[in-house]
C-alpha cells in the first residue's frame, strides 16, 4: 500500500474546516513534498515528523513522499497537522492499519522525541469537525478538557506518537478527558466598594441592562476606573452559545484558562494606552490573531485614559462597534473574529487633570478642546451613554452607609434583560442595544409623539444625529425595563437624553 488518508481540521480565524491529509509513497529519489497551501510551520513539519517517527521506534520510508492537504484552495496554518501527517505516512508505508482511524479527526503537534504537544484553537477545530459529521476526535492530552466541551463527540487524548501507534495496532486505551469539577471562581471587584457616584452607578446599571457603550468623563479619583472594572460583575453569566464563542476566541489566542473549560463570566480587557492598532483589533504576520476587542467579545473593553491612545487605535474601533465583528484581510486570506463587546471609555476632562474638577482647571479653553477632541465625533456618536462624573467629596468618601453590592444590581440587570429578550424575540434579538433603528421607528415599537417631543426637537436642531436619536430611544427602553414599565414614557426619554448628552463632552 502506498496511499493513505487521515482526517484533520484547518482553522482560519474562528472558522474551522475539515481537512484530508493524503500521503502517497512512490519510487524515486527520497524526499518529502507538501502541497495544499501550507505555511512555514507546515513546511517545517517534514523534519519534525521524521524525527518523531524515528524516535518513536518506527521505520521511516526511504521513498519519494507526497503530502497533500485537501481542500487545496484553503490556506493551512500552524502545526496541528503534524500528528495526522505522521499517522497517514505510517499507514501509507504499510506500518499501520488505518481502519481504526476511519472517520476520526486527528490533531496535534509533534516534538522531535515523539511527544504530542497541545495546540491553539482546538475548541473551534473540534466544533467544526462535529459540524461536518465527525463523531470521534483524537487530540493532545493537554487539550482533552477543551475538546470535551463540544457536545456529541467522543474525545480521546494522546501524549506520544507511540501511544497512538499502540492504539491503532493493538487497541491500547487512549487518555480520557478529565471529569473533575471546575474550581470555584475567585470573587472579583464589587460595586459595594465604590463610594458615592450615584450618577455613575446608575449609568453603569443602564449600560449593563441594555448592552450599551459607556463614556465616563471626570477628574482623577472620581471613580471612573473603579466603576468600569465592576461592569462585568453585574453582567449575567454567558449562555452556552456565547460561552462557546468566547472560549473559542481565547483558545485561538492561547489564553484559555487551565483545564480548558467554558468561559462563563463575561471577559474583561483593559489595554494600556500605548497599545497598537493590531493589538486592539487584531493582526500579526501570517494568520491574523484576535485583538483586545475580540478577546472582550460578550464582555467589556475598557479604554482607560482614552485620549492618550493613538488616534488610529481609537478610530479602528468604529467599524467593530457598529457591526460586532472584525474582518482582517491579509495577502494569504482573511480572518474574521467576533467583536461584540461593550466599550467603556474613561477620560480626564483636560490635560492638567486637577482633582478638584473644572473649578480649578489650569488649562486654557483651547487645550481642553484639543484634549477631548482626540475622541472624534464619529466615535463618540457610537457611544450610547456619555456621563460626566463630579469630583469626589469628603462626605461621600467617609460615608458609612453600605452601598448596593454587585449581586443586588445584577439581579435587576438580569430581570431587565429577560424583559428585553422576551420583547425582541420575534426579531431574533436579545438586547436593546442590538435593535436596528428602523425597527424602533416601526409599529408596534414606535414611541408616540408626546413622549419624543424633546428628542425630535434636538434632532431638528442638530444637537443629536440620527444615530444619536436611535440610541436615545434604545436607552429609554432599557430604563423602562429596569424600572418595570412595559413601554418608555417621557421621563424615561428625558433621562436617556441626559445620560446620552451629559453636559457636553
From TrEMBL:
Residues 210-393 form the AAA+ ATPase domain. One of its GO terms (molecular function) is ATP binding. Transmembrane segments: none annotated. It holds the Pfam family Mg_chelatase. NCBIfam families: YifB family Mg chelatase-like AAA ATPase. Belongs to the Mg-chelatase subunits D/I family. ComM subfamily. This is AAA+ ATPase domain-containing protein.
